[in-house]
Records
---
Amino acid sequence: MDDPDSNLSEALRRLRHGRLVAFPTETVYGLGASAGDARAVADLYRAKARPGDVPLIAHVSGIEMARGCAACWCDAADTLARAFWPGPLTIIVPRAASIPAIVAGGGDTIAVRCPDHPMTLGLLRALGGAIAGTSANVSGRISPTTADDVRASFPDVLILDGGRCAGGIESTVVRAEETRVVVVRRGVLGPEALRAALGAGVEITDRVAGLARGATGGGVRVVDEAELGGVGSDAVVLTIGPVACGGRRIVMPTDAAGYARRLYSAVREGEAMGGQEIVIQCPPAAGRSERETAVWRAVRDRLERLTGG
């Protein structure tokens, strides 16, 4: 078994020398470069095959490091960071001049997040600066939740193996302003949780569109339960619980958190089974609690992305 301390030291050395490193978070694995090294960040875009105008996330060890990435750190950003960091929340704020524009896709804002994983937090503290990162998969592919998933895409990159990611889907992303917070990507932290932390003085706006059932794209299709019986035998079907269906079945957890944790690995499993398409039973729009509803909404958002809808 690899020595975690030795791997951490090697990861630190590589980051300081302009190399890429893959690291675990509580959501998915990230692929990153030192945020202050524009040349290394350019290498990250190339390795990921990511369009240059799509921003990365600056991963930080806490609020102090986040302030160093921001030209302005408003009260709303501070309140959210104190409430949810380390954790699955990315906050968009004005970019500091010290952060190369390439990290932000050439824009004047920067997305910052403090991941809840001891291995990556240790790396960030040792580095003493932010890591510009994105999910450790080639653009257009499923985000990785294990080190083996990362290795399949980036066999030559050093991977800090932190085990299977607990969350399974990417963080909630918000844009923080003085009197308004805009949700631009749903995650396990829903608007209700944000509102409870911020209080009545800050408006919460959700700009994320909903999932259209029947959406299809990229070999993935989302259907209602009533349509599952008509699915062809050459498909792989992700059902919520042991529901009757055509095709080969992967039974997904019935709880929102378990479903989210399993989603990406199940799609990868379905691809490995060689199905002509992956058909996914449309998940519920709401759960039995505000938190469960937030997770189901985040899952549906990811399905929208998977199907290209």
---
Amino acid sequence: MNTIDRYLKKKLLKELEYSPAVVLLGPRQVGKTTLAFDISNQFNAVYLDLESESDRAKLEQPELYLEDHKDRLIILDEVQRTPGLFPNLRGIIDKRRRAGKVNGSFLLLGSASFELLKQSSESLAGRVAYLELDPINTIEVSPSSQDNLWVRGGFPNSLLAVNDESSLLWRKNFIRTYIERDIPQLGFNISSENLRRFWTMLCHHQGCQMNSAELSRSLGINVKTVDAYLDLLVDLMLVRKLQPWHTNLGKRISKKPKVMIRDSGIVHALLNIKDKESLLSNPILGNSWECFVIENLLSCLSKEASGYYYRSSGGAEIDLLLNWPDGEIWAIEIKRSLNPKLERGFYSACEDVKPTRKFVVYPGEESYRISEDINVISLRGLAEQLISLEN
């Protein structure tokens, strides 16, 4: 199997230069361990998988074990499974600081963001940096692989499978393992069948505003349970809530988040869409492409910037707004056409929001202007612009 160089590697190395501990977040099977192994030789690192009983046994007396490896980077995988370890790490980091070692002590990998963020922020405040590894995105593959990335998604084992059939099988097994094993192991007592139905129903509403009451009626469960399911999938970094942009415009605007499954390949697997031909004839086509573009752009966005959508009651709408720390706002419209046409709603929304720059992302490769201030651009081209701003 081929491997793909992850652009986050440079960021991770930089954080390890300056931080005593780095938390690398991301869903299971996204490539966190592979990336950690990729850099481990540079640090003569020790790797412990905390899902392994033998590795957990090594940390029964954590101070003793970690003291024996005090001059090496310690990589702790699935660290949210041992929450009692965090106070020990704080003491060890502070001891090493007093001895003059201020960086590169621990790399913590985890796939449950809420639990891990809560545990680490309480115990390691001021001692830890956070990075999130997303599925493989558009800048990490060749232009000829873009459609494969869209259809199969960005999980490495799915994207790099030998054919579409093997890729789909991997994703279906991934979904089943999450529902039947991984989530119960995190301590959630949830009906596997209800969760699968909920996840699948989100696919049919991909990129739509969240309507908990409608989902509640369809699933035969109460609204609180629907919201709990959604929060769980968000916490596991499998679903995103894209928040609405709202400011004092004197207009009625939507205030419900849009909900999207973050990996397009998971959407297609849950809907049993096996290849590009099947996708092109499926009603989910437009929403799938739009959410694929949004997720790829957000994965390239500086952590100082934020993403939103905009929609007013009068029909004015912008698919994605990027809000920069200096106050700049970029408006991005997403079209699945090689000859994209903008509707009145986009122009009306731009009059409301007054963005600094305006883009139309389309599936072609050429970049060109369709008006004085609106640029048509490929997904990869805009993603590269975002990366260059961060660097």
---
Amino acid sequence: MTDALEDLRADLVAEQEALDLVVANISNDQWQLSTPSPGWSVADQIGHLTYFDRSAVIAILDAPQFQEDLAALIDAGTSDSLDNVTLRSYRALTSSDLLEAWREGRRSLQEASLTLRDDARIPWYGPSMSAKSFLTARLMETWAHGTDVVDALGATRPATDRLRHVAQLGYLTRAWSYRVRGDEVPEGEIRVELLSPSSQLWSWGPEDALERVTGSAEEFCLVVTQRRHVDDTSLQYGDLGRDWLLRAQAFAGGPSTGPLPRSAA
């Protein structure tokens, strides 16, 4: 494992621990609070992370088994919702047992990720991923679902420069955000320039791009993970940028619709 991959792994662990601090001492009633994801409680958000962290371990260590599990999941999804399939066993746990299951899954993922090589390809729910993209996706998921938890609890989780991983993934998945919907990617490049939590300038894309998306890195990450509607942010963009941000999807799976503007909710 190179230093860059180890740094990414350390950031993933830190992001998981930051969310653990939010939920470690909440009450049983708070575990059942509704989150912004329709039909999902705080417990469901943690159950989701637990399921996919454990799937990630299998994908890293036993690709054939992961493919068997994926086929079984798709088959089960023909007669039941995927949410029910992935969350059923975790919904049966007490809050303390769920917390421990999540922690155990995280520990297993941390150990499995030590075996990753930079040139590895890991199967997932869509195209296979490089080791770096794979760990970035787990960090993104932890932060995004953690955002739902924080919103539901009215808790505080300060933004950190770990968001650079999420923002970069958001930029890189622009084309995916169209293709997952069967849409053509519009012609024209977009440069993204964001102010980080530590007041650094982060940028992606050619300097002579037709358009720019600028503003807060945290707000950009909220949009590309579909935790905020772009109209509820102070991001600046042109027509091409808005067209992208209205459908931005930095995660795998089928096409997903983000939240409505809060003014329309």
